[in-house]
Amino acid sequence: MITSIWKSIRSGQIDPVYLLIGTESYFIEKTLDLLKSSMTQNGELELTFFDMEEVPVDHAIDEADTFPFFSDRKLIIAKNASFLKAAERGKEKINHDMKILEAWLENPPSSSVTVFVAPYEKLDERKKVVKLMKQHAVVIEAKALQSNDLESWLAQEAKTFGKDISRGAVRKLVEMAGTNLTLLSSELEKMSLYLGGEGEITEQLVEEMTARTLEQDAFKMLQAYLDGDISTALSVYYDLLRQKEEPVALAALLASQIRFMVHVYYLQKKGYHAQQISKQLKAHPYRVKLLVERRQQISEQRLLEVLGDLADIDLQLKTASGNRERVLEFFLMKRAVKKTGVSQQI
Q: Which among 90, 81, 75 has a CA at the least distance from the CA of 15?
């Protein structure tokens, strides 16, 4: 649906009113960029921004009703359209006149394009203005992609840069860069430019070229630790130390990852499926999917034991006066020693 709307915008078929709903900023920003680009082709763009949490909606309506001076059509962006969601009693800073907006929606001017941005998970469907907005505006749902949709989106996004991407490369890219669509698109563009006219985006290329985040490095270190892969766990740890990351902060990040895994597996045991878990924990569905797929590789009891160990490590790091880097290093080594059966203690 969203791709067909974007295609219409690119071809110059632009409607007078748009409504963007959802928390996925990539879809919001790309839609706005397409509108700006398409409307600039015909000359100078008259662009006005309004924050609906700061000014009444009739300011945006008055601007839309004013005939443009330097172009055929002007673009008005009304962000944070909080009057479309359920009202939080006592927190409304601005008094919006919904009667004016409702009447305006019935016959918006053709000399302007007005975009209402509602960066919320859902709107209050009981409100008359919401019903009229959905009836008269072009509605774009900027919602976070589900796990399977994310893989399809990455494959399609790679094609927009003239490249194919392997399934393994898709998973590796999400593992390393996370689920932020803007960042993922940027990484795809970078790798496509590197490849030039030929070649497929492979898992090896993703490994070599993707910018790593602290959270993703910590997750890689944790997975290697849980798998008993001491070489990888320590390699990531030493790399993070070279980047001046503090052991106490890394220990806290590992504990946070473990707690998230415990919550995921607890909800899964209670009968929740991946989508329900992601909604309950306010996490991206793809992140939950990857953990669910690894469910059989480690027990919940083992995770709780590691969490207890990390609590001890946290105390040692905050009270130690010597080389604190060695405290977390010994912790990472202990898992591998236990697995090989050399000793039960370090």
A: 75
* Whole-angstrom distance, CA of residue 23 vs CA of residue 122: 9
Residue 143, judged by CB atoms within 10 A of its CB (0-12, 13-18, 19+), counts as middle
Q: How many Cα atoms within 13 Å fall on the side-chain side of residue 47? A: 12
Which residues, other chains included, contact 67 with Cβ-Cβ below 8 Å and sequence gap of 6+?
A: 111
Chain centroid to CA 198: 30
Cβ–Cβ under 8 Å, residues 51 and 80: yes
Instruction: Give the model's pLDDT for residue 345.
Output: 34
288-324: per-residue pLDDT in tens? Answer: 887 887 777 778 888 888 899 999 999 988 887 778 8
Host H or E run for residue 18: strand 17-21
Distance, in Å, from the CA atom of 176 to the CA atom of 184, rounded to the nearest integer, reads: 10
Q: Are 309 and 331 a contacting pair, CB within 8 Å? A: yes
Report residue 338 as tokens: 């236990």
